[in-house]
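User: I've been trying to design a sequence by hand for this structure and keep getting stuck. Would you show me what you'd pick, starting by listing the structure so we're on the same page?

Assistant: Good idea, let's start from the same input. This is the structure you sent:
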């Protein structure tokens, strides 16, 4: 299913693909490691880093929302 998808990808895209392969599509970390031709511990690290990137993105969205709310409060109090 994923054959030839990993050529020419950025490091972030590679980590995202490893994350999806293991978390969404049920591939084992060992199978993902074979696919990417890296160790299982590398896949573990990539999946962990992708999880952190997802959390950071969610936090950035929440902060942006909070900034918008503060701006609305400032405008309404003037």
């Amino acid at each position: 299913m994923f054959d030839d998808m990993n050529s020419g990808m950025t490091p972030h895209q590679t980590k995202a693909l490893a994350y999806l392969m293991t978390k969404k599509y049920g591939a084992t970390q060992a199978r993902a490691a074979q696919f990417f031709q890296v160790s299982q511990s590398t896949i573990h690290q990539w999946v962990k880093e992708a999880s952190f990137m997802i959390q950071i993105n969610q936090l950035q969205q929440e902060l942006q929302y909070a900034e918008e709310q503060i701006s609305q409060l400032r405008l309404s109090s003037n």
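That's my pick for every position. To get oriented when you compare it with your attempt: The chain has a mean pLDDT of 91. The CA atoms of residues 65 and 71 lie 10 Å apart.
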